[in-house]
Amino acid sequence: MKVIKKILISLLVLGSFSLASSSDMFLLENAKADFDGKNGEIFIGTPIKIIKDIDDKMVLVEISGVSFGDELYSSKGKALLVAKKDGSFVEKNKASELGFVKVEAKIEKSYLTKNVKEVWEEYEEFYYDMCTSCHAGHRAVTHTMLEWEAILQTMKGFAQLNDKEENYILRYLKANSKDGFYEKRAD
Ligand code: HEC
């Protein structure tokens, strides 16, 4: 009987672990966010940890990044913007080493997806449309964020991108790069 109890308990513990990790989601598009009463925005592709449901429409989430005043970046290099708000990201949150913080925000559930491919579908299509007329497409994950910045400096002329198109492609490439949102970070 004791053994069975132990097994049941460990199953329960395991079960709750897998629930926790399956609650990780991604932001489907740039979303308005309420950071403890302060307005802000979280940007497309950001990995999101669900804290709890608020009601049918809203959910409390956690995001993380390196804070620079009212901006939050994915790394110290400030290459990939995670979120912005009206006010500093550090004041209310205990800053750990390197300015890395975890921040809670309320957002609408409709902005969330479990499928990271869905987030970047249109971006990816545009990227391959614009960047494969002279050579095969280089997968985003084959370069770092800073390498992509440098490459785009040359290639934007080749592909005749305007600034908006350049930023659009750059967001996609950086988020999916070697040191972007979904791979192990370099710094
Ligand atoms: C008009 C033709 C043309 C277009 C369009 C073009 N490229 Fe290139 N690309 C080249 C040529 C030529 C090279 C090799 C010479 C060089 O590196 O300058 C190259 C090289 C590259 C490299 C390898 C660079 C390295 O250092 O390894 C990458 C990555 C790349 N391009 C990405 C892109 C991206 C992203 C786009 C779309 C924004 C793009 N290319 C659009 C012609 C093009």
Q: What structural category arises from helix and sheet content?
A: alpha+beta
Inertia-based shape: globular
Gyration radius, to the nearest Å? 19 Å
Stretches where pLDDT is under 50 for at least 5 consecutive residues are 13-22
SS elements, strand count: 9
What ligand species are in this complex? heme C
Count of domains: 2
How far apart the termini lie comes to 50 Å
Q: What percent of residues adopt helix (DSSP H or I)? A: 25-40%
Count every helix, treating DSSP H or I runs of 4 or more residues as helices: 4
Mean pLDDT: 87
For the largest beta-sheet, the strand count, sense and barrel status come to: 9 strands, antiparallel
Q: Please state roughly what percent of the residues sit in beta strands, choosing from under 5%, 5-15%, 15-25%, 25-35%, 35-45% or over 45%.
A: 25-35%
Q: H/E series, N to C?
A: HEEEEEEEEEHHH
Question: Can you tell me about this structure?
Answer:
This protein has 187 residues and is of the alpha+beta class. The chain folds into two domains: 23-111, no CATH class; 116-175, no CATH class. The chain has helices spanning 2-22, 116-131, 145-158, 163-175, and strands spanning 24-27, 31-35, 38-42, 47-53, 58-68, 71-73, 81-85, 100-108, 112-113. Helix 3 runs antiparallel to helix 4. The relative contact order is 0.15. The model is unreliable at 13-22 (pLDDT under 50). The chain binds heme C. Heme C binds at residues 130-131, 133-135, 138, 151, 154-156, 158-159, 161, 169. Keywords: Signal. GO terms for molecular function: electron transfer activity; heme binding.
